[in-house]
Amino acid sequence: MINKNKFKLSESYTKYKMPNLNKQKYRTFREYLREEYQGPYAATDILIRYDNGRKNGIVLIERKFPPLGLALPGGMAEYLTLEDNAIKEAREETGLDITLDSPNKPLCVFSEPTQDPRAFIASIAYTGEGKGILKPQENEDAKSARVFTLEEIASLLDKPIWAFPDHHRRILRIYLNEFGGKNGN
Fold it and tell me: 84 with 5: CB under 8 angstroms?
């Protein structure tokens, strides 16, 4: 028997109203999702280590579409594995060839319902290394992509310059705490 006192529900769960799951209302599960599902939707983010010959650090993008500001490369999960989605999004937004550090073990997952202003989006964050020329594809979300040293990132974390201030800053803080002195950074 499960000890109910052992588990504590988050505040966001206790405020959530369960959808009507009347089986007669929808013919298929897909129809239910289309009409009732409010998330979380999945997105991948990636911390890319990159050395351009002049600077060694992490790649951040400046978004060209709202929400504007600095961000980790990433995007909504498409019909791919999450690890392949992280690589695809990173390649589109940075132009780099990406090798994930641990494809089956993300750095972290954040699923706060309000962390993204657009919708309830859960973020699965990976780490990896980028090779090649740093140049975002023109038809993607990245206006530009630049390398920031770990010291520069640490100095920017409390500034109001982030497109996704809740979870991207938390992801970067986890990375800095766990890997700040490793991998040549």
Answer: no
Query: How far is Cα 126 from Cα 108, in angstroms, rounded to an integer?
Result: 7
Q: Comparing C-alpha atoms, which of 3, 121, 145 is closest to residue 73?
A: 145
CATH of domain 38-179: 3.90.79.10
Q: Pick the closest to residue 92 from 30, 149, 46 (CA basis).
A: 46
How far is Cα 39 from Cα 122, in angstroms, rounded to an integer?
A: 8
Other CB atoms closer than 10 Å to residue 46's CB: what's the count? 30
Mapped onto helix, strand or coil, the DSSP state of residue 110 is strand
Query: How confident is the model at residue 130, as a pLDDT?
Result: 98
* Residue carrying the six token digits 């499960």: 2
Instruction: Give the tens place of pLDDT for each residue, 120-137.
Output: 999 999 999 999 999 988
CA distance between the termini of the chain: 48
**Whats the size of the chain, residue-wise?**
185
Q: Is the dihedral of CA 17, 37, 66, 49 positive or negative?
A: positive
Residue 64: both structure tokens together: 């060209």
Measured distance CA(116)–CA(124) in Å, rounded: 13
Domain regions of the chain by residue span: 38-179
